[in-house]
Amino acid sequence: MNDSYLNFVNSPFGARLARSLGLPKPEVLRRYRADRPEFDGLIAIGAGREPHLLDALANLVASVGMTSVAHESAGLWVPLANRHGLMTGRFEAAESGSHGRLTALLFDASGIEDSSQLEPLHGFFHDTLRSLGKCGRIVVLGRPPEACATPRQWTAQRALEGLTRSLGKEARRGITANLVYVEQGAENGIEATLRFFLSPRSAYVSGQVVRIGVRAGADALPAFDWNQPLAGRRAVVTGAARGIGASIASVLAAEGAHVIGIDIPSAREALDSTMRQLNGTALAFDIAAPEAPAQIAAALDEQGVDIVVHNAGITKDKTIAKMTDAAWQSVIDINLSAQERIDDALLAAGILRDGGRIIGVSSISGIAGNLGQTNYAASKAGVIGRVQSMAPHLRARGITINAVAPGFIETQMTAKIPLTIREAGRRMNSMSQGGQPVDVAQTIAWLAHPGSAGVSGQIVRVCGQSLIGA
Amino acid sequence: MNDSYLNFVNSPFGARLARSLGLPKPEVLRRYRADRPEFDGLIAIGAGREPHLLDALANLVASVGMTSVAHESAGLWVPLANRHGLMTGRFEAAESGSHGRLTALLFDASGIEDSSQLEPLHGFFHDTLRSLGKCGRIVVLGRPPEACATPRQWTAQRALEGLTRSLGKEARRGITANLVYVEQGAENGIEATLRFFLSPRSAYVSGQVVRIGVRAGADALPAFDWNQPLAGRRAVVTGAARGIGASIASVLAAEGAHVIGIDIPSAREALDSTMRQLNGTALAFDIAAPEAPAQIAAALDEQGVDIVVHNAGITKDKTIAKMTDAAWQSVIDINLSAQERIDDALLAAGILRDGGRIIGVSSISGIAGNLGQTNYAASKAGVIGRVQSMAPHLRARGITINAVAPGFIETQMTAKIPLTIREAGRRMNSMSQGGQPVDVAQTIAWLAHPGSAGVSGQIVRVCGQSLIGA
């Protein structure tokens, strides 16, 4: 579970040795800590023609208490920021050599309607990227291509993906780059998502494309406290005894949720111990058993549940010619079919409350396929289908369904992978290192957030922008 | 343009040396040759519950003249094949150790409605994969998830992607694995696509997912000859003087098309020479010039055009901090905006005839982003947006629009890449080698085929299932 190379090259001696040998030096990623400010430093604002999101961005900047500077492409920002009572300045291109002055770059591309209008994106990132400090944040905002009025606009908005993913690959230094498409009318629903992508919580999430849609109904979001957004919510987490599941339980509890952790009876001791630390509830049974959906429903019945995280999963790797029927079936059943049965039971009985959250765990293998994982990849591709197919059905009840797709995450499981394959998996991403279980957990906490009501039907990779994909 | 390692390890001495040193030995891919049979050998048929496509498959098998064997999962095949007058046998699992007996594996998963019904896929590939010969073909057939009636069915159909991509990664030996989703009602439109995926023409296309939809109108396909499917059609190819463009022109001409090749004036000599060999027409001008759309329209006006291939493209690589405004603008303009202007002119004037084909060239960089290619990746992601946005608009006129996305293709351009990066690009795919320009050209010829009328709005990678993706 330890990336000793990362630690070594960031020690005084190791850093010197790595420099003299020309070895890569992955950044120690800045992660969220309750005892450190989550947002600080200078954010540079850029914009294309007729930006639609600057008002929402001014609210965000005020809310997180950052200081902004306007790039010349965003001439409208200064008077707008002044109206919002924000301290703001102008970005001076002359200082662009000064590394580290900025902590975030935010570009509003929502008004771009034609490929011939993409130039301000070049101007902004050309001028500012070198001034972005270690573990800085890049967020490009656009309109969902498929909702654009004209093919020209769709095309230009779709082009943002190639730009943003390239920025992620060239920025290095622990910097993330993500693209957020905001549907027309969803402007007031972007804060939770932008907070996540600007925060150290998204340390290992890069090269991703997320859509924020208009929530069903025009209701205001339920009230919540940004410091305890899940207060009063109940969250089920499967596979919660150890590893990523325990980390998910821990982060959700830290955000205020009461966690009901489920794991198999043989993991009862670890589960009890994990749940005791979080003041949670432990339920030991096999989610794949035929009676499991009824058991969960019965255990939750009185108070219901707000958040369901389907984290439990297994691997039984073999090439298909050597894979037994039992290995195929058990992986499909535990990783996919059991989740379908449980969700359907909780939904049919109304135990998952309106405004709830379902969060699955897919995988890079489910996206790209993998040698020796026909069963696992099929199950994890199925999780993607589950998310995409259920999202429209759940919309009217205000329930969202999404999945994370982890890449190489440092766990006891990955620690058993042979050294050279492990090192390749660790390094083949824009962070040149594996992620931590908490990176998956924080991404799930964002999807579980009451402010993420407009985010549904999506697959978000937690992979440091892994090279591997489809 | 030469993969000398591939040649070396497939020489008698090199093969021995590679074996003794444990080096990888990429397969010499079998490619289409007019003087060799395109289809031969035994095809094994498998099926899940209630398969909907076996009738269409029986027509296909009869049409290409292959011999089939039915796996036990496809019990319905034998009587059906007999009704179609086909020679057929039963696949004997006992012989499954005998390498190379089969040339293709075809599984009809169209009737699978729940993740609990996926097991026959395991049974079929478990039994047959070892009997599939070098450069064999795997095709899985399903229903488009997004058109499924229930979330359970959508989920199960979506799971096929993870399975198929994993099969591609584990099969090796030059074997390709692809997934074809057939919309309900499109059963009679699958032959051109299945021929392509079963043929040596698709040597470097693997891990892809293609959808065949119902064509607009209920008209029968226009009559064509499988040996000269483009006879009587006129095809514009931009950037046709050399490299991939010349290969595209050559394949389209071999299929019977009259090719109008366009390239910049400085390439006039090469263009004239290429077009002379193909009895084509050479047009030398700059597609990015403001007058180009009118020039092309004027040149084509009398007879119109059936196929437009936007192959012309440039790279001007630099990290964004060092990229000039001119480098950004020229790449966006030539690779993307010029295509939009030309298409719009040809469509507005009705010069692109009903039933026509527009084919763009995207790139793995446009899908995944790439270091130093913010401009190129944005332009190539824009090509994807162009395809997706225009497809529904063009449907009523029977015009399809698609794009290929090449991975590492051996050209004069890639020959200039430094050795270690070139070797990584060449080997990081399921074929362990780069592709040839003809692999891109053959994929375009399939999309241009009159039988591909149900294929539109799609991006098909020609990348040997490159590891790189998003």
From TrEMBL, chains A, B:
Pfam families named among the record's database cross-references: adh_short_C2
Name of the protein: Ketoreductase domain-containing protein
Organism: Paraburkholderia aspalathi
Transmembrane spans: none
Annotated InterPro entries: KR_dom (IPR057326), NAD(P)-bd_dom_sf (IPR036291), SDR_fam (IPR002347)
Domain Ketoreductase: start-end pairs: 233-412
UniProt similarity note: Belongs to the short-chain dehydrogenases/reductases (SDR) family.
